Amino acid sequence: MNMTLFENEIFLLSKIEMDSTLPVTAIRVATNFKSHTVRYGIASMERQGIIRRAAFVNFYPLGYFHVAVYF
């Protein structure tokens, strides 16, 4: 499967990858794109399977933590 991104989609992805909960207005200000460009870029990447919505649970506050031992 060959996925290609346009330059504006790459820039948009770089802005939202660390905080995916940003509203469109904040993304618009950070990228200097118009609102419809931001919405279209996100929808396009979702259709291509590059990004998707998912829930993650942080088990550390519950007393669980991950340990890895490498030999």
Total beta strands: 0
Using only CA atoms, what is the Rg? 16 Å
Shape: elongated
The percentage of residues in β strands lies in under 5%
Helix/sheet category? mainly alpha
Percent helix, as a range, is 40-55%
Distance between the termini: 36 Å
Largest sheet: none
**Number of H- or I-type helical stretches:** 3
Oligomeric state as shown: single chain
Mean pLDDT score: 86
Stretches where pLDDT is under 50 for at least 5 consecutive residues are none
Q: How do the SSEs run, as a string of H and E?
A: HHH
Protein traits:
71 residues; 0% strand
Task: Give an account of the 3D structure.
This protein has 71 residues and is mostly helical. It contains three helices and no strands. It has helices spanning 7-16, 24-31, 35-48. α1 (7-16) packs across α3 (35-48). The radius of gyration is 16 Å and the shape is elongated. The chain starts with 6 loop residues before the first helix and ends in a 23-residue tail after the last helix. The mean pLDDT is 86.
